[in-house]
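User: Hello! I'm new to structural biology and keep hearing that structure can be predicted from sequence alone. Could you demonstrate with 4-hydroxyphenylacetate 3-hydroxylase family protein? Please show me the input and the output so I can see what each looks like.

Assistant: Of course. The first part below is the input, the amino acid sequence of 4-hydroxyphenylacetate 3-hydroxylase family protein. The second part is the output, the predicted structure written as tokens.
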Amino acid sequence: MMTAEEYIKSLQKMDLKVYMFGERVKDPVNHPIIRPSLNSVAMTYELAQKKEYEDLMTAYSPLIGERINRFCHLHQSTDDLIKKVKMQRLMGQKTAACFQRCVGMDAFNAIWSTTYEMDQALGTDYHKRFTEYMKYVQKNDLTVDGAMTDPKGDRSLSPSQQEDPDLFVHIVEVRPDGIVVRGAKAHQTGTINSHEHLVMPTIAMKEEDKDYAVSFAVPSDAKGVFMIYGRQSCDTRKMEPDAEIDLGNSQFGGHEALVVFDNVFVPNERVFMCKEYQFAGMMVERFAGYHRQSYGGCKVGVGDVLIGAAALAADYNGVPKASHIKDKLIEMIHLNETLYACGIACSAEGVKMPAGNYQIDLLLANVCKQNVTRFPYEIARLAEDIAGGLMVTMPSQQDLRSPEIGSYVEKYFRGATGSSTENRMRVLRLIENLCLGTAAVGYRTESLHGAGSPQAQRIMIARQGNLEAKKELARKIAKVDVSKDHWPAKPAKK
């Protein structure tokens, strides 16, 4: 397994093509806006080296016969699924940010089981190819960006009906030795900090969309691959001289980017789906399930930090014993632990797939993510309530350090008797960072739209909820005689 230092050096060796503010970034590893997100990924390597976290952060791989970083693991049991969620909570607690390797891990497990079933049904050899790819990833302890979401363009139209065919990643040429692809993947978490991009289709496909049914892997610096960095609220604070307090979280962060594939050649050994449209929906559904499970861990860990910050804010405001403050903190804990309970539940109810790896309970995973679309917003609202208005009207770090006005900031922004003004400002900036600043991308908006929009989960809940079986339970208890019912015939579907 790589150390954090080795991970950073491995990225420095790559020729990553990254654009920000209209210019190419010369050194993505050390750019002040990007570096905190890289530090979050580095923490996944650092903790895996520590004995006290070995059980959560590492796992035994039957593929290569070694212990590996759990972020590269194919789940071998429900215990693995549970430890995944616990690991994600730990990572959220340590970084208070998005640590970016979850999408790759979830893609590994979705593609592993899907390619196996594709081969069984169609006689293809995708699973063999993917097995070799996974050995490569595990042996080298790679960070892999799981890339699913396309720009989509006009969402009322299918991929093949779009005015611009590149709005969904698609195959433009099939060669004897591989394929050429073009398009882009949007909202790519941690893409610039990744060694590889592992691409999946974004929706279920019909035959007319078969060119868009494609899955493959390419190095992040492959010819024709480049990234356009996404803006975040308060992001340029990181470029201010001696910025620290104003950042809220100066060490860690996350990022999103658009990844463009401009006529990228992919050799056959790295192609895992090539026009098998019948299996696109299966891959999408399984990835989405795993990633919805993930949110029951990572968002909870970040929530732990936010709850702690809110409790500290109450201390610095001098109101820790106020009954309404206690009640709000209790509610925050209740909501956070409910998210965690769903993540653990869908893991404990997981099942073994024909390919040998384990999949979570899809219904409970979707319930988990549906809760995630709501609860972090309420936790953030309560944190803002407890913090008070000073969180958004507070002067800057430069004002606090100013020889001319610093004493006034120190005097007038002090809170509870005996407390430090600077510490009060640090805590309030952390809450701002999580609720409104750069980390809000991962904690709030991503909670809503990451791993699919709220409606996507509701569709899956309806599909997985087995309403007819529940009706039958009720009929038996109520002793309903169905022969007495004469329902009017349903109109035929047009």
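User: So the tokens describe the shape?

Assistant: Right, they're a compact way of writing down the 3D structure. Reading them back into a model, for example: The chain has two domains: 4-277, 284-468.
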